[in-house]
C-alpha cells in the first residue's frame, strides 16, 4: 500500500495516481486538512482520519509530495498531566513518523526544508563547482555589476506584502553601493552563462533540461521571470557522468532521494551548482523533455 | 570554426515536395523548401564555414539567409570548436495510462449516457464528445454535466441541433449550471441568436452547416495540431483511433461511430468488454507512415487520420485499410490543396459510403 | 513598482529589489483554470482541459 502525502490541490499527484491505477497499485491519498488519530486494532497500530484509515505495517512506500501528515493532539487540564501526556503522545507520533520514513519513499517530510548555506558547503565537498559566495551586511567590498543577491529563505514569494499586491524576490545583480548597513544578505559571484540546467534527481538517476535564457533581457539574470510571449528555449540535456556522480554524492549527504537541482553552464565551460529544491514542480520539465517522470515515480513507489 | 546545433525539440518532417519544421516547445509548425532539409542535414556533418564555402557564390547568400532564419527562430544554437554533444535526442515515446482517452458518442436522447458513465470511469476516459441528432434543452445539458459530477473526465464537448429556444438566457443557464463542458456547437443554425463574446465558461459556436455524424473525417489545416503529445502519439499510433471508443446511435460499440465493425452493443455489453474483444485495437497502431500517400506527406505527424472514410484503394498484409483518408484534399506530390469531394478519383469511394449510410 | 516597507529592524538587501505583481486580474477568460471534483483521483482540483488534438472533425 502506497501512502501519498499531498495537498488536495496538487496536479502532480493526479498524474501519478493515474499511473498507479493503471499499474493496479493500491494507494492512500492524504490531504493537508486531514487529521489522523492513532489507534490500536488487533495489537497493531492503526491510523484513522475522516477520509482514510490504514495499518502502519501495511504501508510499503511513502511519497511525500506536499503538506503534512497531521496527527491529533490531546490537551489535558492538569498541568502535570498535560506535560506528561505531551511527551507520551510525542513518542507515539514520533514512532509513526520514523517508521513511515524508514520505508521505501520519495522524499520525506522531515527534511523537505533545507538550509541553503549548508547545501552549498556539501556541494563543494561532493566535488561540485560552486560560484564564490559570502554573507555581508554592507556593500563595501562588493564588486559591482558582477555580483548577485538572492534570498536564503525557502520561498521568494511574499503574498499580500501590500494592498492588493504580491512580491517576489528574483535573483538580482547589484549595480550600486549602499550607503547604509542592512540585514545579513547572501551575495554570490555572477557567472557569465551559456545556458542554465535544471536537473530532476530520482534515486540515483538524473533527468536534465537546458534553459537558454541568455538572449532574453527579461530572463537573463533569473529565468523564472518567465517571458510568456516568447518562452526561453528548453531542451533535454545530459550532464557528464562525473557530474551526475557528484550530484548523487550530494543528495546522499543531504539524505535526499528526490529533488530538482539548478546549475549554470558558464561560458568558461564549467558547470556551477546553484541550489537544490526538494519539493519542486517537475511536470514542466517532464513534459517539455518527454521524460515521463510521472510514470517513473509511479514505477518506483 | 563554428557549428550549428539543431535543438532536439525541433522536428523536421520531410514530404515529397517540401518540409515541415515543427517547434514542439512553442507548438508551431512552418513549411520550408526541401533545400533547407539538405542544409540542416549538412550542418550535422560540417562546420558552418565549411558548409558555406561549399556553396557557389549565388547560393552562398541563400545559405546564409537560411542560417539566419534558423537562428532567428531559435531552431538551433552555435558552438565553437565542435558540436555540443551533451544534447540528447528528444524521446518521442508516447505514454498514456488510460485504457481509453476519448469517447465519441452519437445520441438521439440523453438516456444512453448514464448507461456508459461507469465504464468511462473504469477506462480512465479523458474527453467525451457527444453528437446529438436532436435539439438539447438546458435540462439536457445540465443533466449530462451532472452525470459526470465527480468523473475522471477532463472535459465534455457537445454538438446539438439548433432550435429557436437557444438564446442568450439559454446559454447563460447552461453556463451557470455546468462545469465539465468546455465546448458547445449548435449546428443547422440559420441565424446566430446573439453575438458571441468570450464570456462563458465554454467555447460557443453556431454554424449554418447541417452537420451530420457522417460529416466527420475532414482533413483540414484548422484541425492540425503541433505539440509533443499529439506528435509522439502520431509517430507510434493511429492519430485518430488510438485509445478511442465510439458508440453509434443504435448503441453499437465501435472504434468510432462511423466505422462499420461493431464490438457489441451497450444494451447487452459493456465498453470494457468491447475493448477486450479481438480486433478492437487492430487499427490502433496504423501510423501515418504506413498509410498510402500520407507516408510521403510533410503534415503526417500534425494531421489527424481517418479510417472511417478512406479512398479504399489499399489494404495491408493483415487486411487492414491503409488508404489515404477520403476527405483529404491535399496532394503531397503537387503541394496543392483541392476540394476533395470534387476529385474524380474519389467518386467511387464517395458513392460507396453514401450507399452504406443510406442502408444504415 | 516599489513598495514602502516601514520596519524597525534592518532587512536584507533583497527587499530593495522586490518585484511586485497584482493579484491576478484575468486578461481573458482563456486564462481561467476550471477545477472539477473527481472521486477516483480523490481531489476537488481535477483540472478541466481541452484535448491536445482534434478529436472529431465534423465541421
Indicate the percent of residues in helices of chain C. under 10%
The portion of residues forming beta strands of chain C comes to 15-25%
Distance between the termini of chain C: 48 Å
Class from helix and strand fractions of chain B: alpha/beta
The averaged pLDDT of chain C comes out at 85
User: How many DSSP H or I helices of chain C?
Assistant: 0
Count of DSSP-assigned helices of chain B: 9
| Gyration radius of chain C, rounded | 21 Å
Mean pLDDT across the residues of chain B is 96
Described by the principal axes of the CA atoms, the overall outline of chain C is: elongated
What would you note in describing this structure?
The complex is a heterotrimer of chains A (301), B (360) and C (59). With 301 residues, chain A is of the alpha+beta class. Chain A is built from 6 helices and 19 strands. Chain A has helices at 11-22, 79-102, 116-125, 241-253, 283-289, 293-300; strands at residues 2-5, 27-30, 35-41, 44-48, 53-55, 61-64, 70-71, 104-106, 133-136, 147-150, 157-162, 165-168, 172-173, 185-189, 193-202, 205-212, 233-237, 258-266, 271-277. Chain B is α/β, with parallel strands linked by helices and 360 residues long. Helix content of chain B is 26%, strand content 19%. Chain B has 9 helices and 14 strands. Chain B starts with a strand and ends with a helix. By secondary structure, chain C is an all-beta fold. Chain C has no helices and 3 strands. Chain C has a two-stranded antiparallel ribbon with strand order 2-3. Chain C is elongated and about 65 Å long. Chains in contact: A-B, A-C, B-C. Chain A binds chain B through residues 18-19, 21-22, 210, 212, 215, 230-231, 233-240, 287-292, 295, and chain B through 7-9, 25-26, 74, 77, 86-93, 95, 97-99, 124, 228, 232. Strand 12 of chain A pairs antiparallel with strand 1 of chain C, so a sheet runs across the interface.
Amino acid at each position: 500500500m502506497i501512502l501519498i502525502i499531498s495537498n488536495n490541490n496538487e496536479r502532480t499527484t493526479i498524474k501519478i495516481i493515474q499511473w498507479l491505477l493503471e499499474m493496479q497499485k493500491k494507494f492512500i491519498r492524504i490531504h493537508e486538512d486531514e487529521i489522523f488519530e492513532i489507534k490500536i486494532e488487533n495489537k497493531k497500530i492503526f491510523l484513522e482520519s475522516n477520509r482514510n484509515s490504514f495499518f502502519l505495517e501495511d504501508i510499503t512506500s511513502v511519497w511525500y509530495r506536499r503538506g503534512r501528515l497531521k496527527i491529533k493532539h490531546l490537551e489535558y487540564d492538569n498541568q502535570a498531566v498535560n506535560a506528561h501526556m505531551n511527551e507520551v503522545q510525542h513518542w507515539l507520533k514520533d514512532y509513526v513518523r520514523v517508521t513511515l520514513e524508514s520505508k521505501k519513499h520519495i522524499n520525506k517530510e522531515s527534511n523537505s526544508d533545507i538550509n541553503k548555506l549548508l547545501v552549498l558547503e556539501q556541494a563543494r565537498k561532493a566535488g561540485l563547482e560552486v560560484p564564490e559566495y559570502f554573507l555581508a551586511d554592507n556593500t563595501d567590498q562588493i564588486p559591482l555589476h558582477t555580483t548577485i543577491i538572492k534570498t536564503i529563505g525557502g520561498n521568494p514569494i511574499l503574498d499580500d506584502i501590500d494592498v492588493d499586491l504580491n512580491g517576489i524576490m528574483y535573483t538580482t545583480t547589484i549595480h550600486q553601493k549602499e550607503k547604509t548597513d542592512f540585514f545579513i544578505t547572501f551575495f554570490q559571484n555572477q557567472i557569465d552563462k551559456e545556458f542554465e540546467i535544471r536537473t530532476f534527481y530520482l534515486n540515483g538517476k538524473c533527468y536534465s533540461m537546458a534553459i537558454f535564457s541568455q538572449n532574453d533581457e527579461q530572463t537573463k539574470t533569473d529565468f523564472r521571470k518567465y517571458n510568456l510571449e516568447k518562452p526561453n528555449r528548453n531542451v533535454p540535456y545530459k550532464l557528464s557522468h562525473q557530474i551526475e556522480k557528484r550530484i548523487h554524492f550530494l543528495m546522499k549527504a543531504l539524505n535526499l532521494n528526490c529533488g530538482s537541482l539548478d546549475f549554470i553552464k558558464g561560458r568558461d565551460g564549467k558547470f556551477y551548482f546553484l541550489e537544490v529544491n526538494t519539493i519542486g514542480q517537475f511536470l514542466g520539465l517532464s513534459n517539455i523533455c518527454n521524460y515521463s517522470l510521472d510514470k517513473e515515480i509511479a514505477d518506483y513507489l | 570554426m563554428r557549428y550549428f546545433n539543431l535543438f532536439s525539440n525541433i522536428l523536421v518532417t520531410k514530404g515529397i515536395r517540401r518540409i515541415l519544421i515543427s517547434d514542439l516547445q512553442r507548438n508551431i509548425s512552418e513549411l520550408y523548401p526541401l533545400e533547407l532539409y539538405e542544409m540542416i542535414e549538412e550542418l550535422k556533418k560540417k562546420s558552418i564555414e565549411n558548409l558555406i564555402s561549399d556553396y557557389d557564390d549565388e547560393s552562398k547568400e541563400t545559405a546564409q539567409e537560411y542560417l539566419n532564419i534558423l537562428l532567428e527562430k531559435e531552431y538551433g544554437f552555435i558552438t565553437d570548436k565542435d558540436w555540443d554533444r551533451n544534447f540528447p535526442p528528444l524521446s518521442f515515446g508516447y505514454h498514456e495510462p488510460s485504457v481509453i482517452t476519448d469517447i465519441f458518442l452519437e445520441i438521439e436522447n440523453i438516456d444512453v449516457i448514464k448507461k456508459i458513465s461507469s465504464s468511462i470511469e473504469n477506462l480512465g476516459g479523458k474527453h467525451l464528445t457527444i453528437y446529438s441528432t436532436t435539439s438539447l434543452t438546458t435540462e439536457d445539458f445540465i443533466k449530462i454535466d451532472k452525470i459526470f459530477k465527480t468523473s475522471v473526465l477532463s472535459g465534455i464537448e457537445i454538438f446539438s441541433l439548433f432550435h429557436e429556444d437557444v438564446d442568450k438566457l439559454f446559454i447563460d443557464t447552461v453556463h451557470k449550471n455546468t462545469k465539465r463542458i468546455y465546448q458547445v456547437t449548435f449546428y443547422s443554425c440559420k441565424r446566430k441568436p446573439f453575438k458571441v463574446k468570450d464570456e462563458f465558461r465554454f467555447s460557443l459556436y453556431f454554424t449554418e452547416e447541417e452537420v451530420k455524424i457522417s460529416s466527420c473525417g475532414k482533413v483540414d489545416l484548422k484541425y492540425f495540431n503541433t505539440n509533443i503529445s499529439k506528435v509522439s502519439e502520431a509517430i507510434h499510433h493511429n492519430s485518430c483511433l488510438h485509445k478511442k471508443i465510439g458508440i453509434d446511435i443504435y448503441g453499437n460499440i465501435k472504434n468510432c461511430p462511423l466505422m462499420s465493425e461493431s464490438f457489441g452493443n451497450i444494451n447487452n455489453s459493456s465498453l470494457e468488454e468491447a475493448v477486450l474483444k479481438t480486433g478492437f485495437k487492430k487499427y490502433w497502431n496504423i501510423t501515418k507512415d504506413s498509410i498510402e500517400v500520407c507516408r510521403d506527406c510533410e503534415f503526417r505527424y500534425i494531421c489527424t487520420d481517418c479510417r472511417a472514410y478512406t479512398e479504399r484503394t489499399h489494404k495491408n498484409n493483415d487486411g487492414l485499410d491503409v488508404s489515404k483518408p477520403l476527405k483529404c484534399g491535399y496532394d503531397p506530390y503537387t503541394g496543392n490543396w483541392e476540394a476533395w469531394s470534387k476529385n474524380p478519383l474519389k467518386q467511387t469511394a464517395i458513392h460507396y459510403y453514401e450507399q452504406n449510410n443510406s442502408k444504415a | 513598482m516599489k513598495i514602502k516597507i516601514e520596519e524597525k529592524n534592518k532587512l536584507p538587501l533583497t527587499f530593495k529589489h522586490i518585484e511586485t505583481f497584482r493579484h491576478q486580474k484575468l486578461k481573458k477568460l482563456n486564462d481561467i483554470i476550471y477545477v472539477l471534483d473527481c472521486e477516483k483521483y480523490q481531489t476537488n482540483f481535477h483540472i478541466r482541459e481541452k484535448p491536445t488534438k482534434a478529436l472529431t472533425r465534423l465541421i
